[in-house]
């Protein structure tokens, strides 16, 4: 622990992040990426790992519990065997996370206090999946942190990462510079928060953070959100090539960025001469280009594995399609008549072409029917198998990169 790290530890004792009220667990479950159970099944295990096999999870740097609570609740609701090990060095953050777990009567969480950098000596064993969300960019040595996580992976396991990205955080670091002058870290945290709020009220309209609609923690994240965003003693962002190098340096393989569609420059570029140039780029270069031309990515989410892992098999009749946080029949009814699904990411609107049979297929996606069974139903309606398979492939090409149409883990 260096001097900056000591201040960081004190910050999260004073302001557990993100700011959460355990009583809210009776109203809603916070879901997101990484570490949604359906995403883990699909992107990490290729929809090949049976649900009957116990899943051992580590949430490294669990904070006030968002990832831990989401995954533990999803596993418990689906009667999936296994455990979620929460690890964080903040006693205050752990207290919030434990209170949230009690509200939900979750029985599959094990709480541990410590740093992910100490994993080799903690005796926690190996994990099938590790969540590390919003942690690496605060470490004195992110490479050492990721190496420690890679060393704790069981064979065939994977990691879900989230780190800050530079372009979408335009204005943040300028405001941090200003507050180092106005609210030095020698002052008590409440005094620094007060000065930060006063400064934000007085900041002129020319400030880049005022023009950045994608960063809102200082507005709606409470004192903890404001402190973490503007007063954090160590905050390092990673561009796509920097994150890719970090992953490769740890001996890991990048499976995908989330959502994959956002990292495909051809989604934004229609000019054939530009596309001829993007076609010659490798995946990391393509993702780097997408990050640079969009300018609105404030974080990067990535799924990585240590070993070569199988890809989801969309050609298997036994595979079961699922929609992440969407209802198939409802989505089918809402498709536009022009055959284009319009989605918006941080003010950027993208049109995703849908095949002719999109509505018919989606209306049958219930998380139980297999691809073969859906084909049988449509065949009974007079739709040829080849036509179904062609349109299914187009539907997958549209919705899998949105991280919405995935394949479920097999039951056995």
Automatic annotation (TrEMBL):
Statement: the UniProt record of this protein carries the keyword Manganese: no
Gene3D superfamilies: Vaccinia Virus protein VP39
Domain of life, source organism: Bacteria
GO molecular function terms listed in the Swiss-Prot or TrEMBL record: methyltransferase activity
Keyword Transferase on entry: yes
Enzyme class name: transferase
Domain Methyltransferase type: start-end pairs: 60-158
EC annotation from Swiss-Prot or TrEMBL: 2.1.-.-
Keywords from the UniProt entry: Methyltransferase, Transferase
GO biological process, one term: methylation
Protein name: Class I SAM-dependent methyltransferase
